[in-house]
Amino acid sequence: MKPAVSSILFTFGAVATVTLLLTGATAPRSASAGTSGDAFDYRVLQNNFQLFHEGQRIFRFDTFGSEAFWGDALKLHQAIAGQANGGVGGGVSPETALAVGLKVDSEAIPRSVATALRQGKVDLKNPATTLALLKFGAVVGVKGTFDRKGKLTAVGIQCSLCHSTVDDSFAPGIGKRLDGWPNRDLNVGAIIALAPDLSVIANLLGVDADTVREVLHSWGPGKFDASLLLDGKAFRPDGGAAATLLPAAYGLAGVNLHTYTGWGSVTHWNALVANLEMGGRGTFYDPRLADAEKFPIAAKRGAFDVRNTPDLVTSKLPALHFYQLALPAPKPPRGSFNAAAAERGRAVFNGKAQCATCHVPPLFTEPGWNMHTAAEIGIDDFQAMRSPDEHYRTTPLNGLFAREKGGFYHDGRFATYRAVVDHYDAHLHTGLGESEKNDLVEYLKSL
Ligand code: HEC
Ligand code: HEC
């Protein structure tokens, strides 16, 4: 289960340290007590590797104590285990887990099991197999807690549940981790709806469990509604689901505001998510959520000022932040776009189509206050009005290809690249011709 990358990094760290020492820097007697520039450079370097390594571990594996919510309150572990394994109902087989979009980390599976899997000797219809995968820590984003007899007693969730996928190198849904790539197959609503006890959510929303299930099933794959347990708005005015797409967590360095509606910085949102969305146990302060008119559920549950002892979140925020900013946007595979057309499309993007006025390359969002009204981008303001700033944030476009599934814009309303381009062409009256539109699409695919 040791990620090979970290050993490479440690090797790199050692080489870099040696280089630093060879290039005249004297070995700091005590790195932490050093006052010379060289000693401090050395500490910076060490800090760099430490934050990265810890951040990766936290992003992938930390549950922030969210077992209290997913286990104790929702009792999701009982539904996963099934009656035959001390839980309730039929249990969740690996087949079902993969069908709701959960991913399996092939590097966490012991070799003998991997061989058996390849030979078709593993029963993928049996919930006991899911329990084994949980014991290996192989289900991306879900951690199982087992008692001494091997019974599943709780589950907790990790950032990687929604913000990582796998490369399918072993089999569909099974492969090496791709951190920061949104899992657009993951049906978060369907997974939560499996929970035998939805009373915490029902009580917060003031509805019955069936209504909660109806809401959860309205989301569909690749979506989650991070505002539901803040404002209680389950549906859009037109009756559609109020959920948003799971966004990329890569390519965020240099970007000022985060989330589709610019709630705050990466680390603000990390703290909000760990405490308020995942059900982790830490500290969170955001007085904007005390507005009972706008955020009735948040105000009721005291989400504006959360204090837990012990605090299982705050000490993890620096490394978590660092790791996310270190995640580069992936490059599209060769041959997935027409390079000559993309090159022409670049000129359209930067010129006639006016895209670059907001999506400023190479960041592809505005350096500065990257927020716009709904009217500026020609859409309704429902989701914007659910956020404190009541605007939409200019989405950074790097690595767009890795989130094509589920569509574009916060709710996936534009199913294709072409639909996005047509929307802007009509809204901004740019009068693009057919070949300019095609070139622009190829450029978007190339980012
Ligand atoms: C249940 C799924 C889920 C989990 C788990 C989750 N997130 Fe998210 N995340 C989302 C959704 C949905 C959004 C978009 C919210 C919005 O824009 O309103 C989001 C947005 C973000 C963003 C903003 C991205 C951008 O484009 O600016 C960051 C950063 C982020 N999450 C980090 C994390 C971290 C760190 C964790 C773990 C502490 C985490 N998330 C756990 C679903 C999830
Ligand atoms: C006025 C500023 C502005 C201009 C001009 C603009 N955009 Fe955007 N763009 C935004 C904002 C804000 C969003 C987020 C909308 C949302 O999520 O609902 C966005 C979202 C997008 C997305 C969706 C990204 C995703 O991950 O869902 C794409 C693609 C995009 N823009 C491409 C373009 C192209 C191509 C042009 C030029 C034709 C353009 N934009 C012009 C502000 C702008």
Description:
The chain is mainly alpha-helical. Among the domains are: 58 residues; 141 residues, no CATH class. Helices cover 42% and strands 8% of the residues. A two-stranded parallel ribbon has the order 1-5. It has a two-stranded antiparallel sheet with strand order 2-3. It is globular and about 65 Å long. The protein starts with a helix and ends with a helix.
Strand content: 5-15%
Shape: globular
List cofactors, ions and other ligands: heme C
* Helicity, as a percent range: 40-55%
Please sum up the structure shown.
The chain is mainly α.
Main traits of this protein?
single chain, 447 residues, mainly alpha, two-stranded parallel sheet, two-stranded antiparallel ribbon, 12 strands, 8% strand, globular, binds heme C, Cytochrome_c_Peroxidase/MauG
